[in-house]
Amino acid sequence: MNLKVIAFDADDTLFVNEPYFEETEKKFCGLMEDYLSHQGLSQELFRIEIQNLSLYGYGIKGYILSMIEAAMKISNNTISIEIIEKIILYGKELLQKPIELLDGVEETLAALHGKYKLVVATKGDLKDQQSKLHRSGLGHYFHHIEVMSDKQELDYEKLIQRLDIKASEFFMIGNSLKSDVLPVLGIGGHAVHIPFHTTWAHEKIDHKVEHENFRALKTITEVLPILL
Question: How far apart are CA 180 and CA 120, in angstroms?
Answer without folding.
Answer: 11
